[in-house]
Amino acid sequence: MGSDEALEVLRRVFGYDAFRGRQQDIIEHVIGGGDALVLMPTGGGKSLCYQIPALVRDGTAVVVSPLIALMQDQVDALTALGVRAGFVNSTLDYDSRRAVEAQFVGGDLDLLYLAPEALATSSTLRLLERGRIGLFAIDEAHCVSQWGHDFRPDYLNLSMLHERWPDVPRIALTATATTATHKEIATRLGLTDARHFVSSFDRPNIQYRIVAKQDPRRQLLDLLRTEHRDDAGIVYCLSRASVEKIADFLKDNGIPALPYHAGLDARTRADNQSRFLREDGLVMVATIAFGMGIDKPDVRFVAHLDLPKSVEGYYQETGRAGRDGLPSTAWLAYGLQDVVQQRKLIDGSEGDAAHRRGLAQHLDAMLALCETVECRRVQLLAYFGEQSGPCGNCDTCLSPPESWDGTVAAQKLLSTVYRLHKERNQKFGAGQCIDILLGKKTDKVVQWHHDELTVFGVGADLREADWRAVIRQLLAQGLLAVEGDYGTLVLTEASGEVLGRHRQVMLRREPERPVSAAKTAKVAKQRSAASASAELSPEATELFERLRAWRAATAKELSVPAY
Ligand code: ADP
Ligand code: MG
Ligand code: ZN
């Protein structure tokens, strides 16, 4: 049944020829009254998975979405297609709200968008009792996860929908796909009988590149000038202050850039967002407050000037590039200071030790991605439980980093930390340790008599940048740690194996020449074949779980960060 009708609605109402990926299966399942949990990458086309059932099934589809700022846009877009849609949230004035309510109660709405906090109020619940509901859609369902940075406490209430309306099917959708988040969503929303639709998370048209931070503004400017002239893109920064500074810097250099962060007033934010969506070739410089639910198909690059807190976050943010399937760049510049800063944030974060441990594990996985000598995509997909071969369209594939035996360098660095600590009961940050190794008689070195240490000057065979890379990688491999407000270096248990000469340390040498644009286009073309999608069978899920457990155990043995 539903199949022909769904296709007919796709063509007549939305004007598309064919379904993408698993859309058709999902839509038919939901039209038939089944519950569904949909994991599909950003830009995969999740909205149609509930919008078409909303049109085919009797009654109104109630859509829960955290994106209040976008509800108006979504409803306008649907209305333009002749779909009867409305929304209720805090931005609505009394009269408009009454009008939408009357439409809903009168059975004149196909879709009603609600903010999650609205569902916590008894007036909204009374309203819902008075209409006829054909479907519940829970968009951005990862907001129920307490680990993610998008956590919304009101999402925890949503399990009550099923208790109050046991016969109404539910569909939950998200682009966040680690096994842990996936399970957490199913549990917290009480989706016990839901069918799980898991699409491949590969985005073959996105080229992943991670470079060592030297002069990040210059590096960004080079990227934009040489490869992304006149392109629309997003530049992510950690703080509001750096958003402002980078936006100004780009403007000063002739690149049209707009700032976006939570400290700007609502009006400016809305203006900048709508200019970014409607005009061509604008660069949005933003904190992670920007981007969720934004549907702009031709974002050609996403650049990160600060290290994301987790692979999930990185994947979500980079996923905003290239929704149109054309070649796009995900570029991240990261340095030692990022690691120090992130550790500091974790140490100072609220919550108990377990929470901090969780954050630290997320950061470790992100560091491992940054410092890998393997294909970035293989690592990234493995993190989401997918296996794949080298992609040919990431920096490590295009310009494989050499690895070198860094055992001696690691021993020099670790013994500097050891000597400062054991012989002098002192702890210092990376800068001082590097000065000691290089044999630089800075004021601070002289003041602390560090030129009298036996390790003074033993590292003059490497450059400062090399030492920074050594330290970053030792941190990523768990052979060194940073602590405290000043990011002082401290040894880990595993450091002892290196110092005791029981362990070889292989390090990554940065490629001399960065990946070029010409290579990019060619490879992206070769890989433009549609990415495969697959619903995981219980056997496959179990296999992935076993692999993950094995990886974690091995990682522990080798004391490298586990996923
Ligand atoms: P998601 O919510 O998964 O990030 P959206 O639902 O916003 O993705 O869809 C992303 C884009 O893909 C939209 O512009 C949408 O109109 C388009 N799209 C979705 N399904 C199809 C389809 N079957 N054919 C063509 N375009 C589609
Ligand atoms: Mg969406
Ligand atoms: Zn690759």
TrEMBL record:
Its EC number is 5.6.2.4. Residues 216-367 form the Helicase C-terminal domain. Its cofactor is Zn(2+); Mg(2+). Residues 27-195 form the Helicase ATP-binding domain. It catalyses: Couples ATP hydrolysis with the unwinding of duplex DNA by translocating in the 3'-5' direction. GO terms for molecular function: DNA helicase activity; hydrolase activity. Gene3D superfamilies: HRDC domain, P-loop containing nucleotide triphosphate hydrolases, Winged helix-like DNA-binding domain superfamily/Winged helix DNA-binding domain. SUPFAM superfamilies: HRDC-like, P-loop containing nucleoside triphosphate hydrolases. Keywords: ATP-binding, DNA damage, DNA recombination, DNA repair, DNA-binding, Helicase, Hydrolase, Isomerase, Metal-binding, Nucleotide-binding, Zinc. InterPro entries: DEAD/DEAH_box_helicase_dom, DNA_helicase_ATP-dep_RecQ, DNA_helicase_ATP-dep_RecQ_bac, Helicase_ATP-bd, Helicase_C-like, HRDC-like_sf, HRDC_dom, HRDC_dom_sf. It is an enzyme of class 5 (isomerase). Belongs to the helicase family. RecQ subfamily. This is DNA helicase RecQ. It comes from Dactylosporangium fulvum. The lineage of its organism: Bacteria, Bacillati, Actinomycetota, Actinomycetes, Micromonosporales. The gene is recQ.
